[in-house]
Design a protein that fits this description.
single chain; 148 residues; alpha+beta; Deoxyribonuclease I, Chain A; four-stranded mixed beta sheet; three-stranded antiparallel beta sheet; Endonuclease/exonuclease/phosphatase domain-containing protein; Endo/exonu/phosph_ase_sf
């Protein structure tokens, strides 16, 4: 059994910081495998954002510190680098990877080959994500020996 937590990062940075504190409490109090998936409204590095103006460095640092201090592992994203696209402004589109899945080490041990796949954004500014668990099954095969 494992816990799946759906996240919507508040657009307000101060409120988002409070969310990270609440998730930290959850991570420390739960011994179960946990996955946090959704729109975090933050990036882990400046490379996860393409825009005229970079993300404020303190926001990137705080989100990365949150992920690192809780020993969360960012799942690989296949199908595209970015998950959110802004409206066209001044002929420039902002692209960011703000949607993701973060698992604790117990969850990652259960699903070492899990990943996210992004689909084309059609009616939304977010790309839909599909979580592929790809569980490892230890199949016990019976040993058969025949002598002729």
């Amino acid at each position: 059994m494992w816990l799946c937590n759906f996240v919507y990062g508040n657009p307000n940075f101060k409120k988002r910081q409070e969310q990270w504190r609440e998730i930290t409490v959850s991570c420390r109090s739960e011994s179960e495998p946990q996955l946090f998936i959704g729109d975090f409204n933050d990036v882990l590095s400046q490379e996860e954002k393409v825009r005229l103006h970079p993300k404020p460095q303190n926001q990137v640092r705080d989100f990365k510190n949150f992920v690192d201090s809780n020993a969360l592992i960012d799942l690989e994203l296949k199908g595209g680098r970015f998950t959110w696209f802004s409206n066209l402004r001044n002929e420039f589109v902002t692209r960011e990877r703000i949607d993701r899945a973060l698992g604790n080490w117990k969850w990652r041990m259960m699903y070492p080959h899990a990943y996210l796949s992004s689909m084309p954004a059609i009616r939304s500014d977010h790309s839909p994500l599909i979580l592929y668990l790809n569980p490892v099954h230890n199949v016990r095969r019976s040993f058969k020996f025949e002598a002729f």
